[in-house]
Amino acid sequence: MIQPDQSALKARNRLLAMFLLLCILDVALVIAAQDRWAIGRILLTIGVMYFVIQGKKWAKWLLVGICSLLVVSLITIVLALSSKLPAALIVGSLVMAILSAAIAVYMVSSKELNRYFSCQRKANLQ
Question: Which residue, among 12, 5, 6, 4, has the nearest Cα to 110 in the 3D structure?
């Protein structure tokens, strides 16, 4: 079995830490906004992340798309409804947008993370 090197594992752990922080923030905002429908989106995103960690290319690009869409949606909502939203939701939404953008950029630009994904794909073939 092919083992990724230490820098690739650290890159994976950074991605998981950012994603965990995003999920915790997302759940907190869903609870604050009392939006029960968003639970399905959170579960879908966690499911996609599972396949990302398995090294699936389609899942990586789907998660990049989800994060990008989340950035646009959150910023649009904050701009359109800033006078109607509590300050905690505005700040939380902006932090979540920044974190989503960071995850998307990290997934696309990190050579170590891409090396981890490559090792995972090779291990899945064996």
Answer: 12
